[in-house]
Amino acid sequence: PFLRLLEAQLQDQRREHEEEVEALKNQVDAMKEELEKQQQTFLQTLQLSPEAQVEFGLQQEITRLTNENLDLKELLEKLEKNEKKLKKQLKIYMKKVQDFEASQAMVPAERRRYERNMQAAVQRKEKDFQGMLEYYKEDEPLLIRNLIT
């Protein structure tokens, strides 16, 4: 069983390595194509008149700035979504703090009753999840190794 586990881990690592090498090869191919395009553009630019070279350079810069602007807009949208999410979380936490402060302001007898109810609810939750284990998929080999030893 232990050798099979090691063999399976080795095969997984080999597969991951092969996928990574393939991805890197694809990336190198894409970079070669981009370099060839840039070289062709450069050679075409050299054949143009000085005025046409300036105009072509301006067009290239406008294209670059437009792409950069689109990337920044996308980033801004992502940040705005994150801001909304964080504001919602803040409202939830503020409500919890207010509830807690309200429970602290209760008369002692009411507070004891409230705390007993909260304690009972917590105990029930613990019983519901007894025996369960949550872990990340990438931690599985470490978990198995610790279980075996």
- DSSP summary, beta strand count: 0
User: Main beta sheet: strand number and arrangement?
Assistant: none
The rounded distance between the terminal residues' Cα atoms is 13 Å
Low-confidence sequence ranges: 120-130
Q: Which percent range describes the beta-strand content?
A: under 5%
Order of secondary-structure elements? HHHH
In round numbers, the mean pLDDT is: 84
**Count of DSSP-assigned helices:** 4
Radius of gyration, in angstroms, nearest whole number? 31 Å
What spatial form do the alpha-carbon principal axes imply? flat
Structural overview:
Residues 120-130 have low confidence and may be disordered. This protein is mainly alpha-helical and 149 residues long. The two termini are 13 Å apart. It has helices spanning 2-47, 50-105, 108-128, 140-148. The longest helix has 56 residues, at 50-105.
From the structure above, extract its key features.
single chain; 149 residues; mainly alpha; 0% strand; flat; coiled coil; MYO5B protein
